[in-house]
Amino acid sequence: MFKPEKFKEPDFNQEMFLNAPDAKYIEVEIDGVAPDNFHAMSIYPEYFKVNGKWLGVSESRMDTVPVVRDGLVEVLEFRNLKIGDKVIVGRTEDASEGIYLYTDGFNADDGHFEMFQFRSGRTRETAFSKDYDELAQIMKYERANKGHIVWVLGSSISMDDRTRFNFSQIIKSGYVNAVITGNTMATVDLMKGLKSDNPFVQERASDSRTETLQDYITISKVREKGSIKKAVKDGIVEDGIMKTLVDYNIPFVIAGSIRDRYKLPETYNNAYEAQDA
Asked: Coil, strand or helix: which one is 99?
């Protein structure tokens, strides 16, 4: 049975930590502009020495900046920095500037645990069957322990009929707690899901000239209803990912892109608003 490796904090009683200086910070002078030599967060746990004590960050996120507030360290997106925010500065991560990046927190003693390690001879995007096996185990564990599984979906998932069907089954099986996606994925999925007795579907099947307009007609049909949820509730969508999300009351965020000429009602036009949703 899968059991997640427990996180092991660094031993801060080591000399390198005891002798390290406090992390330095510089106050923001212009909203949304980080000071020179700002420290950017990584994918790994990081610690900062503040007032003689090493502090972790509870909700870290890659490519944000650490800010000292009320004796604690928080992370902020660059765009959310405000005048007076105390941004930690320094580019070293070996404790010499009061900043420590920790890569060994999930390493098992027997060396078999590789969940958070990049293997040699591969890129971050390279996937092995072992990765999918581990992912399936993690998802089962999260579902059983009331975790929160968020999926970020690309448009290709709705373009392939088998994948579209399979992901709908994953939703029904309880392995999806939220979805973040783009306007194209949702539009193509809804286009394929329109009921077969819908006049648009009949027109689409009989007239190849409408092929390039399919996305726009689909969006128009949904906008007539006012929302994706209303379109599903009113029965014009027969199947698919978006219908299953609505049926199972799973929240979703749809972000637009610069290439979108026409958007679904729920689509965020502002990328920052979509990230914050």
From this structure: strand
pLDDT on residue 200: 54
Residue type, 7: F
> Strands across the sheet with 99-101, in order?
53-56, 46-50, 99-101
Among 262, 152, 265, CA closest to 213: 262
Q: DSSP strand E in 42-92: where?
A: 46-50, 53-56, 65-69, 72-76, 86-89
Task: Read off the pTM.
Answer: 0.79
Domains in the chain, CATH or no CATH each = 15-101 (2.40.420.10), 148-276 (3.40.50.10690)
3-state secondary structure of 156: helix
Start-end of H helices in the chain = 15-18, 129-144, 156-159, 161-172, 183-193, 199-206, 214-225, 228-233, 241-247, 271-276
Average pLDDT across each block of 10 residues of the chain; the chain has 277 residues. List them in order. Answer: 86 97 98 98 96 94 95 96 98 97 77 44 58 89 95 95 97 98 96 73 54 83 96 95 98 93 93 89
Helix or strand or coil: residue 166? helix
Q: Give the residues across from 38 on adjacent strands.
A: 89
